[in-house]
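Input chain follows. Return structure tokens only.
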Amino acid sequence: MKDIVIIGAGVTGALIARELSKYNLDVLVLEKEHDVGNVTSSANSAIIHSGYDPKPGTLKAKLNVKGASLYPALCDELDVSYSMCGTLTIIDDESQWPIFKELLERSKANGVEMLSLSKEELLKLEPNISPNALGALYAKKAGIVNPFELVVNAMENAVDNGVVLHVNEGVVDIKAKDNYFVVKTNKDEYETKVVINAAGLYSDKIAAMVSDIDWHIIPRKGEYILLDHRTAGLVRRPIFPLPSEKGKGILVAPTTSGNYYLGPSSEPQEDRDDYSTDSATLANIKANASRLVPNIPYGDTIRVFAGVRSTPSTHDFIIGPNGKYDNFINVAGVESPGLASSPAIAQYVVHDFVEKVLPLKAKDNFNPHIRKHIKIKLLSEEERNKLVKENPDYGRIVCNCEQVSLGELKDALNRSVPPHSIKGMKRRTRAGFGRCQGGYCLGTVSMLLAEKYGIELTEVNYDNDGSNLIVEKIKKVNND
């Protein structure tokens, strides 16, 4: 029997798994997707909010502020790209001053330091901001993070410390017994003392398998526009409009890799798996982004995409026992500021709920660090030359756009949470993330995946099963 089964390997599930890996427990993580962090965690704004916006007294407020404070140390341990660059929330209409002042008061209630900037102070920080801006709220301790690295590296650290991960294995049923649960998947069946439901968009469906619930998840789509990193210098930090009932609004923001994105939109939908984009929504994103930052170089757009977030009907995170079952813990409705809150959510779940139903004995050999990633792009010429002499694979550049070497691709495949798809490799190494979107490196990446898993090139998937890009061989190669 397992001690704990975690359902879902997004950023919340991964960080809970890592927190639990500090203790002598038998922990299994079940993920229905082909990879960790493959849904909401891979298509979000990547911002570590300071915590000024959530309504005081809510879980969002409590966990956002604490979570943000944990990020510098966490990202250092997990070798995750992170920058405490701050964020700016812009006011550009006289009628918005009451909302502006309300946010300033809310930040004080949440214990978050905010600065009120005049137009002149704002333009000194961000010269490319619209001249129509009247002022801004400056959250100096907010930041940006690489969400792909965060979820993969957190799960890698958990697995290195003893957690077991099963991908491509979805839960189809859960039966409650006297003091344990039987979790049935599309592949197997597991008995477990505790279930942690971190299933994101499907968390309400999972919870309803064992208990009546008085909440539900509302899928909300957000579309984005991604700009090439040659647009460097557009803005130095995320630029927000004033928030509304739909969310934090359409923003202009840098990423840790030097790209910029615009978005997201925010529209509820019934389909939890609809990631399509449409021209009308993208046009609206451009119009709203240009209101914040004029002269955005839309000709440098390299990709448009959409994510679907799990908006809770309760308007707050849903964390705690499921009905009468103290050993079935829901971690649901983790929408924005979920990414910023996730390290604190992990601690909250483990120490406020798991510890009440399961004894926790700390390991003597827990290692909070992962093996550092080598990124050729960031090395000096001297460091590169030394490395290439030791391993020539690091001297062969496979992805020209992002300067990713063969050595980096091979390293990703030989870690404890390796990619199983082209998309998985892309998120771990950035091969395929650049201007040509894989046009140059796709072949090499596909061949490496085929070799790793002993499959044909026609069996290599872009993402989940059935997403193979190479459908058949049209010519037989004669090696005679």
